[in-house]
Specification:
The structure is a single chain. The protein is of the alpha/beta class and 470 residues long. It is 45% helix and 21% strand. It folds into 2 domains: 238 residues, Glycogen Phosphorylase B (Rossmann fold); 209 residues, Glycogen Phosphorylase B (Rossmann fold), CATH 3.40.50. It has a 10-stranded mixed beta sheet with strand order 5-6-4-1-7-8-9-12-11-10, sandwiched between helices. Strands 15-14-13-16-17-18 form a 6-stranded parallel beta sheet, with helices on both faces. Strand 2 and strand 3 form a beta hairpin.
Length: 470
Amino acid sequence: MRQANLVIVANALPVRLVRERGSHRWQSSPGGLASALTPIAREEGGAWIGWTGEVDHPRRPFDHEGIWLVPMRYSAADAEDAYAGACNRMFWPLYHGAVRRPEYHRHWWRQYVAVNERYAKETAQVAAPGATVWVQDYHLQLVPSMLRELRPDVRIGFFLHIPFPPEDLFIRLPWRRSILEGILGADVVGFQTANDARNFTRLVARLTPGVRSPYRVQLHGRSIRVKAYPISVDAERFDKTARDPAVLARAKAIADRLGHGRTIFLGVDRLDYTKGIDLRLKAFLQLLRSRPKSLEDAVFVQVAVPSRERIPGYQELRRNVEELVGQINGRFAEVGNALVHYVRRNLPFEELVAMYRAADVMVVTPLCDGMNLVSKEYVATRFDDTGVLILSEFAGAAAELDTALLVNPYDVDGVAEMMTRALEMPKREAAERMQAMRRTVRRRTVYRWAASFLKDLRDTESKAGRRLFR
């Protein structure tokens, strides 16, 4: 078994399978986690353990663009109970403020434990002696403690990319202590915001023997660092692509096609109920009702990337969003002049950047979000300091991008009023706000995020041979 000194462990591999004319090839994934960690793994010649998305289809490890990829095999029960069930119908809604009611089923939990055990065993085989292992996200919260039992010589980090819920929500989880114990197997535990870290340490103090102090949890002779590490984007890549003449020409073509001189509002999201797409469209509808002039000078483009389409709640969301698009266009649009353009598919990277460049106002209004990289991507493309960002105060990014127009996404009238403000904002004010956000995004890049986490992790001393909980 080939081993690596840096091992990233995540639910999914940073590639997707593309089938063409009877053959297939692996293509790098466009997702936020893959975009954030792939450069780090490549630079260090590391390994990445994760799922291909296939069911009952074993694949051998392989190299992809300088990274050793180790596919995990998923059975139908793994995909249905651990992933679709425990991860996406229990942890996901619970950790996102219970905006949809979480479901708790024991057979989901049992399969979740089994999947985490297999990840831990595979990681123990791939990690070189004294390796650094970085476990990612809510799919694998039990892996740190399981891996510590198997390989006490390695340094283990855990990072949660989504929010960590407050006490009154988390204590509803039947397996709450098991989750805390699993995460506390790590030497460093990272969250998107300081508030998430505080939620975690409060629960540790309440539900475990752990003793919390600023940035630390002391437990059974071990010291676990707990800290916020706000994730970011590859700002230079977005900036460079945004300046490309071909991308600029495409952006101009998009703007011209949508209507020369019209203000373009843009939303780019996974089609997920936490993203607030339906409320955002209702706000745009309210803008059209309350400001007749907007019928002539505004247009909305919503890019909705398909997500978890077999889960009933996501199917319902898709229907609601598409009905709203039809309602708005049916009431206000004229032939050949739609007011809402709805794109339900993944966009190639250059096309996405062109969309960002074409957009005058970026609307990012999740109901709850760990960070939200779309907001930072948009800012990174605005090299001329144009554009306005409307941002939910419930996105982790709001703490850093505080010169955006911050909104409560549940307040439809308030979002509509902020859209009006964006339409009427003087260019100088917009430039000053964007300049401040660009300084933040260019200073706090994805490379700085990863370097900061890995530095703290490699500075720790893992204590061998000690059981975390007895």
